[in-house]
Structure formats: C-alpha cells, structure tokens
Amino acid sequence: MIRRSFFRRNKPEVDCREVGKVLQSYLDGDVDEDFTAKISAHLEACKDCGLEVETYRQIKTSLASKMPAVDPAALERLRRFGDELTAGD
Ligand SMILES: [Zn+2]
Questions:
Q1: In angstroms, what is the span from residue 80 Cα to ligand 1's centroid?
Q2: CA-CA 20 to 30 A from 26: which of 45, 57, 59, 73?
Q3: How many Å lie between the centroid of ligand 1 and the Cα of residue 71?
Q4: Cα 58 to ligand 1 centre (Å)
Q5: How far is the CA of 33 from the centre of ligand 1 (A)?
Q6: What is the chain's alpha carbon radius of gyration, rounded to the nearest angstrom?
Q7: What is the pLDDT of residue 69?
Q8: Distance between Cα 44 and ligand 1 center (Å)
Q9: Residue 15 CA, ligand 1 centroid: distance in Å
Q10: How far, in Å, from the CA of 83 to the mean position of ligand 1?
Q11: In this predicted structure, what is the pLDDT of residue 14?
C-alpha cells in the first residue's frame, strides 16, 4: 500500500518546477514564510534556479529604475542568434 502523503511530507525541499512556478510571487514577497525558506534553500543549492532568480531580479530592478533590462551585449548576441536562425531558407 502506498501512502501518498509519505513523499510529500518527507520531501525536504521544493523542486525546480515548483520554484519556477512561484518564482515571481516569491520575489514579490507573496509566499508564506515556510515556503520562502524552502525556496531560498533551493536557490542556494541549485545553480539553474539561482541564475533564473538573478535574471528575474535584474529585470525587476531595471524596470523599477527604467534601465535596460539586460546587458546590451547579451541582447545583441540573442539578436544575432535569431538572425542566424532565420537567415537561410
Ligand atoms: Zn532548481
């Protein structure tokens, strides 16, 4: 017999998908303390999510200060990548 609650109760942290789902709310301070602690722990342990939260933070900060959302060089790289994709038929 499988007790479904077993896994949920014993899961020490949230996983990447969960973090991704609540990342914006987390940054807005819209999640409860318990969940915030779990997300923070995950972000410190997980490089991918840590990077993602950094990007979100940068966008939020730049929106607030009306500065370019991302590094222009990074934007240029993205644009060129897009051009290459659409260049040849
Ligand atoms: Zn993660």
A1: 29
A2: 73
A3: 24
A4: 18
A5: 19
A6: 18
A7: 61
A8: 9
A9: 6
A10: 31
A11: 87
73 to each of 40, 48, 60, 67, 86, how far by Cα in Å? Answer: 30, 21, 19, 15, 20
Show the DSSP H helices in 46-71 as ranges.
47-65
- Higher pLDDT, residue 19 or 67: 19
- How many Å apart are CA 57 and CA 75, to the nearest integer? 17
Token pair belonging to 54: 């950094």
CA 57 to centroid of ligand 1, rounded, Å: 16
Task: Note if the pTM is more than 0.70.
Answer: no
The rounded Å distance from CA 75 to ligand 1 centre is 25
Rounded to 10 deg, the angle between the 33-45 and 47-65 helix axes is: 110
User: What residue spans define the domains of the chain?
Assistant: 4-87
19-52 pLDDT, tens per residue? Answer: 999 988 998 899 999 999 999 999 999 999 999 8
